[in-house]
């Protein structure tokens, strides 16, 4: 298969809980069979995003970082890491992240992740939200069941664990 897919990930910039780290690892473990055709797109290399990037690297995923101006941490110069230093503020950087992605997976976050979810919806990208993370993205389940508004621009799916998030990615991309 020659086609590649870009998986945007909205994730907290804070130090994650051990439960969230496990869900993140389970998510990437569930996708590792497709590491040759899946690209991970992140907004930085700190907080939960760092754990995602490092675990993705162990499985051979290429990870693309769409960085804001003055990122909190520098991305290591590794073979599978591609840094794009946009010089843009955080919300504008999030626009590039969501436009680049074929779908968005929210693994727990605050306003930045919620912004990326709303942008993905507006750009008609499917959204997968991990809930019960302890982050503000958990609130979306009560507010938006299967879509954000009445236009139904894109579906929104809620999953309870990382393994289910990976299964939903593969289902959406028709890889399984």
State which percent range the strand residues make up: 15-25%
Instruction: Give the neighbour order of strands across the main sheet.
Output: 4-3-2-1-5-6-7
The number of helical segments is 6
Measured as a percent range, the helix fraction is 25-40%
Q: Overall 3D geometry?
A: globular
Number of strands: 7
Over the alpha carbons, how many angstroms does the gyration radius reach? Answer: 15 Å
Low-confidence runs (pLDDT<50, min 5 residues)?
none
Residue-averaged pLDDT: 96
CA distance, first residue to last residue: 14 Å
Content-based structural category: alpha/beta
Taken in chain order, the helices and strands follow as: EHEHEEHEHEHEH
Largest sheet: 7 strands, parallel
Structure report:
Helix content is 36%, strand content 19%. It has helices at 18-31, 48-58, 90-100, 111-122, 140-143, 162-172; strands at 5-10, 38-42, 62-67, 81-85, 103-106, 127-130, 156-159. Helix 1 (18-31) links the parallel strand 1 and strand 2 (38-42). The model has no long low-confidence stretch (mean pLDDT 96). The radius of gyration is 15 Å and the shape is globular. Helix 1 runs parallel beside helix 2 and helix 3 packs across helix 4 (111-122). It is an alpha/beta fold and 176 residues long.
